[in-house]
Write a structure and sequence with these properties.
The complex is a heterotetramer, with 2 copies of chain A (355 residues) and 2 copies of chain B (323 residues).
Chain A (H helix, E strand, L loop, with lengths): L28 H26 L13 H8 L7 E3 L5 H6 L4 H9 L8 H4 L11 H15 L5 E6 L6 H13 L3 E7 L2 E2 L2 E2 H4 L4 H7 L3 E6 L3 H19 L2 E6 L18 H8 L3 H12 L4 H24 L18 H18 L1
Parallel strand pairs in A: 1-2, 2-3, 3-7, 6-7
Antiparallel strand pairs in A: 4-5
Helix pairs in contact in A: 1-2, 1-12, 1-13, 2-10, 4-13, 6-7
Chain B lengths: L2 E3 H15 L3 E5 L15 H5 L4 E3 L4 H13 L3 E5 L10 H8 L2 H4 L9 E6 L14 H5 L5 E4 L3 H13 L4 E6 L6 E3 L12 E4 L4 E5 L3 H13 L5 E5 L2 E3 L3 H11 L2 E8 L4 H12 L9 E5 L10 H4 L3 H13 L1
Parallel strand pairs in B: 2-3, 2-4, 4-5, 5-7, 6-7, 10-11, 10-13, 13-14
Antiparallel strand pairs in B: 1-8, 6-12, 9-11
Classes of the chains: A alpha/beta (355), B alpha/beta (323).
Bound molecules: thiamine diphosphate (2 copies) and magnesium ion (2 copies).
Family (chains A, D): Belongs to the BCKDHA family.
Pfam families (chains A, D): E1_dh (PF00676)
Organism (chains A, D): Pseudonocardia ailaonensis
Chain lengths: 355, 323, 323, 355
């Protein structure tokens, strides 16, 4: 077996910057402030959603805590018109695309199966069936290829999802068709209670190379490294270099979902070791040391976070329930007779209770 | 009005779709140079190019999954599944993704994807090549499930399926691929309507795909004994044209539904259940079901005994009339 | 006689199987340290080791495929599919391999594999986590399809499923996992038999899994109006215990079948079709079907309106009696 | 991407021997004669089956012509108790295991779905659903692992089947579980009309390495190389080295099946270039040059082949049809009531025609 590759890292946990000639990135105060701000807001939104679930306002929530750098660093390195296929934990990425808190919460409150118009944001709805979005993203990229457009497509998935046959079918298909597709895996070390070691023997980036993709490993908690590598790889793909995969090493700091009990399968010491590598903390150190953020800046961001949190609470509780009868018209382009019949009988029955 | 085999009629339907809608792409295993194992796509890659008639890697989940992606991009993919028994690797993409996308997105995202499936037995094939799996898809909300039985419908129903904007499971009875019939330009029946292919007043026979001809033969045989059997080609299983069926059964009071799939939990059960309710006061005999036995499809040497034939249909007609 | 939740009753059934048959292995996603997302395998890995209670990679086709291989080697795998909506990636292994192996080998090769599936809605879950897909498997020759509805059956039926030597799709109604009931040692009913859970003479209610309790509640409510509803828990869908059902319907002359799955092409259709034929002359009203509407399973906020409840069952009873 | 690997070759198309220190093999006259004989008999059987199909005695036939070295060289390097999972074209391997012509033909004549008892020959029945046997072989190997037995398991599949998700699930699963399993791919360049280039971008052995398997490429038309590499790899696996993959480069010299028309998609020149690399021919040259076979030996083999051909014709025509009603008892361990009922009604109906 090949010798382990070191993940690309520009900003280490202690906030030290070490440029990497292979991945040139102009590290400006603006860039750092922007990425930092997006991560802070994403985490605040995520914390708020978690709280809303605990209060019974949401049926379920899947935290992105710990994965902000992987998501923010990558999605901001794409063009706004590059179509994105998320998995189901990409709220940090979604917020970067302008998807609103309400649109992100409605599905977890149980009012709808998806919350936003994928065409409007160039961001597909969440896919809960693991790896199912990978062949779909591959097909979308075939369309881009046929249109001769200079867009690329990006698809997010997890370490666990990579074991699904459909994930491999997509890697192989994309490689043989040479489509403009970026596979972005957030290897957060766990698939619910299953560690990556049970999932695979060799690292995923090595597997992708085996399929003939250009593959890279990056420190997923280093937003600058993720941003630099994604930008570089996206450029190659856009230039016709064919599909590529980026494996971002990160950590799911919360439970798998609000129904999960991670204490059953992982240790506090493991969690602590990753807390020490927190993606937001290290950027904070950098901004402080370089003096790229001052008290005013911090205060402004605190204010913005509080507003986002308040807004999130407000819109969540205000989400309208909607009409059950409206669902009958969403199955096919036109409501077939038997559904019209069922809808009418249901409405009549419900009405009859009221008498 | 040309005489075309069912296979050729499908081919001309695809050709028309490819000519009139630049978004249409045909994709599947061996659909290019080979023209598909049943030659349904014969010559299409030569005429429309490898970008629109796509030889795919050997992966059904990939075929349907990428078709969904192409549809999201604005294309209208027509997928070929090489044989009925090989659609299962794509089952998750079909029932959880393709069928549900429109409802999942509250109607925002439509997926006009057609999945063509050569279906059923009667051609002496080896295992997994003679399956009748329509009941799985008919039970899946969000899919249209249609079945052609002859050249005319093959051509027009395929064109309608491509145009309809919904996901369509399009079944093609293998044993009729080489049967020739006229394909004419008459205004076609809507995709979701059943057709009375032979009128009669004694018993209603309901069939689709390969068993339509079986029922027509049975009707001809019965006629010699003075029995008039009405034969209806269901054409669309989901949605089901219950009005046309009920009108007939209300008249005849007797009904036999015939398909190749095993009877237990087969599509005939839905038909029997629906008619049993809708026509309860008109039925003079129970709705009888004639289908394959509840076995995995048997080896070729036994398929004649397994498949509903003229004798088993007439036996059911006798039992119905004797009630 | 301990009071056990349905989940705990399954756990003790598995524990018994692991203790008494060294060939039994439990496998699936997160069944080890976590004990499964519904805790059905809680503590089993600790007590029987990681070789017999196996945390698998995240791949359902792999789970069922490797289970088949283990069975070929002489093991008796019990697979857990984490949620109903995630069995589809394994569909090909189940319907083309697991179900057919015995017939394909003329009876030479048996595959004693149990596939446990937490099924159905009522727990406010997100999409793909509340599916009722029993009709797909009941229509597949070569599989046994069983459904437990309470703790007693959960424990014993699971043990019987592991011992029976055939592939078994074993359904566990999610919304009953935490309901406590007695589990006693009485000689259990055979795996393939239906049970009359409440006798009555006016209308027969047929249910399984989560809707059994719904029907019992309906019967209790109806009783206050002097109506005696007989409630039968089907327990085994394939094979179906038609004798027990027919005996009841012959007495009552009226029948309502209730399940969560969409009605169109659902298992209720088979029941209606079979009874419609078997009890034709005894039926005073058509067999009525109450189930989910023909939609993809709706968002959680709507599932109460989607699922058959006491009111819809009683409405059907009224319609039946009014015929 | 990695640079292409040269396939292991000991015996070149011109019959020249070049030992490979990595794959030591004692090349004795007996070994060569034995492998040669098995290949000759396999081809003769295959030709005869083809003829029987043309005469209408078989419904379908899938030729193994051209792949004799890959199959004979590999299966003879396994132990008789090593369980084998074939695909559907492995008659050369099956004959080596003692499976009879009748057992091999019955399924293609349409009398049964499979012809032999897998336990008796340690050779599973053919699997026609592509790649479905791979997870099954992986599971069987999990059983061997749990039994602490020193057997290994071998599974055959094709270049096309490798694109199926189940193939990748098996490669990944076997690697992470470390089971004693040998994946043997006969890359015969075609999947019906689809060339390997459409199927994949990178060679399969590279993909397998990406999953963390020990992977090798061998000249599949060189029976000595296949034998040496398989023997060596099998030994490693038996010693606990974990799963491995061998990709054998070969060619399907006939059509995909007797229903196929290869003229539609491939050139005569391609076929000729592979005829020049025929696995049997090169072994013939070696035997001749070294004088390891004499006229008597050749005559004896001709006679044995003729007998096999005659036997094949005889048993094929003599295969009993069997009873349809017998099928009803093969679905479950005990025939359920509704099947008994169907069987009886069917028998009665058939009887009624006779009156
Ligand atoms: C096909 C399928 N099988 C099982 C599940 C249940 N499930 C939901 S999330 C999950 C773990 C996924 O882990 P990973 O892919 O690493 O993503 P992460 O949750 O770590 O972001 C599982 C098993 C599913 N959603 N889909
Ligand atoms: C799941 C599935 N899809 C499609 C088919 C139809 N089919 C049978 S053989 C074949 C080509 C297989 O090619 P390969 O795996 O290279 O094996 P070869 O025939 O070359 O030995 C195809 C597409 C099948 N048997 N199974
Ligand atoms: Mg993960
Ligand atoms: Mg091949």
């Amino acid at each position: 077996m090949e010798k382990p590759v070191e993940p690309v890292q520009l900003l280490d946990p202690d906030g030290r910057l070490t440029p990497d000639p292979r991945w040139p990135l102009e590290i400006t105060p603006d860039l750092c402030r922007d990425l930092y701000r997006r991560m802070v807001l994403a985490r605040r939104f995520d914390d708020e959603a978690l709280a809303l679930q605990r209060q019974g306002e949401l049926g379920l929530w899947l935290q992105s805590r710990g994965q902000e750098a992987a998501q923010v660093g990558s999605v901001t390195a794409l063009r706004p018109d590059d179509h994105v296929f998320p998995s189901y934990r990409e709220q940090a990425a979604a917020l970067c695309r302008g998807i609103t808190p309400e649109e992100l919460l409605v599905q977890w409150r149980g009012n709808a199966h998806s919350g936003w118009d994928p065409a409007a944001y160039r961001f597909h709805v969440y896919t809960l069936v693991l790896a199912a979005q990978l062949p779909q993203a591959t097909g979308y990229a075939m369309g881009v290829q046929r249109d001769g457009a200079d867009e690329i497509v990006a698809v997010y998935f997890g370490d666990g999802a990579s074991s699904q046959g459909e994930a491999s079918e997509a890697l192989n298909w994309a490689a043989s068709a040479g489509v403009p597709l970026l596979f972005f895996c957030q290897n957060n070390q766990w698939a619910i209670s299953t560690p990556t070691s049970t999932q695979m023997r060799a690292p995923l980036h090595q597997r992708a190379a085996g399929f003939g993709l250009d593959a890279h490993l990056v420190d997923g908690n280093d937003v600058l490294a993720v941003h630099a590598v994604t930008a570089g790889v996206a450029e190659q793909i856009r230039a016709g270099g064919g599909p590529a995969l980026i494996e971002a090493t990160t950590y799911r700091m919360g439970g798998h979902s609000t129904s999960d009990d991670p204490g059953r399968y992982r240790s506090d010491s493991e969690l602590d070791s990753w807390r020490a590598r927190d993606p937001i903390a290290r950027m904070e150190i950098l901004l402080d040391r370089e003096g790229w953020i001052d008290e005013a800046g911090r205060a402004a961001l605190r204010l913005e976070s509080d507003d986002l949190a308040a807004e999130t609470r407000r819109v969540c509780r205000a989400i309208p329930k909607g009409e059950f009868s409206a669902l009958f018209g969403t199955v096919l382009t036109s409501e077939p007779p038997h559904l019209t019949d069922q809808r009418q009988r249901h409405t009549a029955l419900v009405a009859s209770y009221l008498d | 009005m040309p005489l075309l085999t069912l296979s050729a009629a499908l081919n001309s339907g695809l050709r028309h779709a490819l000519e009139h809608d630049p978004g249409v792409v045909v994709m599947g295993e061996d659909v290019g140079g080979l023209g598909g194992v049943f030659r349904v796509t014969d010559g299409l890659q030569k005429d429309f190019g490898a970008d629109r008639v796509i030889d795919t890697p050997l992966a059904e989940a990939g075929i349907v999954g990428t078709a969904i992606g192409l549809a999201l991009r604005g294309y209208r993919p027509v997928c070929e599944i090489q044989f009925d028994g090989f659609v299962y690797p794509a089952f998750s993409q079909i029932v959880s993704q393709l069928a549900k996308m429109r409802a999942r997105t509250a109607g925002r995202v439509a997926l006009p994807v057609v999945i063509r499936i050569p279906v059923g037995g009667g051609i002496g094939a080896v295992e997994h090549h003679s399956e009748s799996n329509e009941a799985y898809f008919a039970h899946t909300a969000g899919l249209r499930v249609v079945y052609c039985s002859g050249s005319q419908d093959a051509h027009w129903m395929l064109r309608q399926a491509v145009e309809c904007g919904d996901p369509v499971i399009f079944y093609e009875p293998k044993r009729r691929y080489w049967t020739k019939a006229e394909v004419h330009d008459d205004e076609p029946l809507p995709l979701d309507r059943a057709r009375v292919v032979r009128p009669g007043r004694d018993v209603t026979l309901l069939a689709y795909g390969g068993t339509v001809q079986t029922c027509l033969d049975a009707a001809t045989a019965a006629a010699t004994e003075g029995r008039e059997l009405e034969v209806i080609d269901l054409r669309s299983l989901a949605p089901l044209d219950l009005d046309t069926i009920a009108e007939s059964v209300a008249r005849t009071g007797r009904c036999v539904v015939v398909h190749e799939a095993p009877v237990f939990g087969g599509f005939g059960a839905e038909v029997a259940g629906a008619i049993g309710e809708r026509c309860f006061d008109r039925l003079e005999a129970p709705v009888l079901r004639v289908g394959g036995y509840d076995l995995p499809y048997p080896p070729a040497k036994f398929e004649e005994e397994f498949l509903p034939d003229l004798d088993r249909v007439l036996d059911a007609v006798d039992r119905s009339l004797a009630w």
